[in-house]
Amino acid sequence: MSSARTDGSIRPAGARSWQRWAVVGLLSLLLHLFVLNWANGNFRMPQALGEEPPAALQSTLIQLQAPQASPGPKPAPAVLPAAKPAKPRAKPPVQAKAPAANTALPVATETTPVLSAATSDTAMASIPASSTAPASAAADAGFGWPEIAALETAAATPEQNSYRIDPPPSATLGYDVQALREERMVYGHGKIAWKANGSQYTIDGEAGILFISLLNFGSRGQIDEFGIAPTQYTEKRFRRPPTETRFDRAGKLISFSASAKSFPLQGGEQDRASIIWQLAGIGRGDATRFVPGAQISLFIAGVRDGSTWNIQVLGEEEIQVGLGALRAWHVRRAPRAGDKDQIIDIWLAPSHHWYPVKLRFTETNGEYLDLSLADIAAPQS
């Protein structure tokens, strides 16, 4: 079929059909290009619930430049975006620890005076402040407690231990014994045999209940310008092994069988038995030392340690013993704060040559051993 033109000519029908398809094809192509372009910028995979979209990665191209002869201002470096830093956790405030009670703080440039051994308030030795823990003779009673190395070399000087001494005459003293043991009162007997000939002495003592010996002790030595001068002290307590304390006067050293400690021997040092008779000798030689509130200080060696004992004069009292009522000076050795040694009470009777007419040994747990004079006899030969 053909169509007529305006000029009167006839156009074939196939030409018109080809033109229509060309227009449709062009429109279709444009439509596909539009759809592809839209999908490229808007089509994405679905995200999980609450997930943040990924941050766009950015990069900066930094151009390196060769160094120049004259330095110029440095350009600010490009900074890549970084993750937000985590907020630092606050640290708890640090508190200084308070020093423990009764604890000596060491001072590097100062020294602490410590009594070297016995009597004079002005006689002191400079001991480093780092070694000012309390000294100890408590191990003598079987207790453990703080020790001080300073006192291991702080025996008394001759001037400090100098007293006017008049030893009492020889005698054997018999005692009634009363003891508190394991919350029960027990009773027995005891004796102290004191022998002195002007240049030498011996002491032998015992205390027991029924057929059980609670305490055996002995001291022997010389009598010199300081008074009683032990050379050996032995002790045997109930259920404990025997011990020996040696006073080497030639080598000027005090040593112990029960420990490796040692002390210098300078004169006037005592053991746990001789101290009683040294006090009796002081009372006979210089009774003015015995006034209420007075103090007599002597270095005492026990069974494995030694320290200065400060003997307090409490006063003159009337006491009742087996011999009846007697006037006696009451003196006491009380351990220093923190010590766990015995408290020792001694009553000395001036009317009976200052003999110890009553003795009491009190332990830290409250148990005690009490010796009360029952009779006085001449010592056995």
What share of residues are in beta strands?
A: 35-45%
Order of neighbouring strands in the sheet with most strands: 12-11-10-9-8-7-6-5-19-18-17-16-15-14-13
Q: What is the SS-derived class?
A: mainly beta
Helix content: 10-25%
The outline comes out as elongated
If you had to describe this structure to a student in words, what would you say it looks like?
- The chain has 381 residues and is mostly beta strands.
- The protein has a domain at 124-377.
- The protein has two helices and 19 strands.
- The chain has helices at 13-42, 274-285, and strands at residues 2-4, 10-12, 111-115, 124-128, 171-181, 184-196, 200-209, 212-224, 227-237, 243-248, 253-256, 262-264, 270-271, 295-301, 306-321, 324-333, 343-349, 355-362, 368-377.
- A 15-stranded mixed β-sheet has the order 12-11-10-9-8-7-6-5-19-18-17-16-15-14-13, covered by helices on one side.
- Strand 5 and strand 6 (184-196) form a beta hairpin.
- The chain is elongated.
- The model is unreliable at 38-67, 75-84 and 90-154 (pLDDT under 50).
Short description, anyone?
The chain is mainly beta and 381 residues long. The chain has helices spanning 13-42, 274-285, and strands at residues 2-4, 10-12, 111-115, 124-128, 171-181, 184-196, 200-209, 212-224, 227-237, 243-248, 253-256, 262-264, 270-271, 295-301, 306-321, 324-333, 343-349, 355-362, 368-377. The chain has two helices and 19 strands.
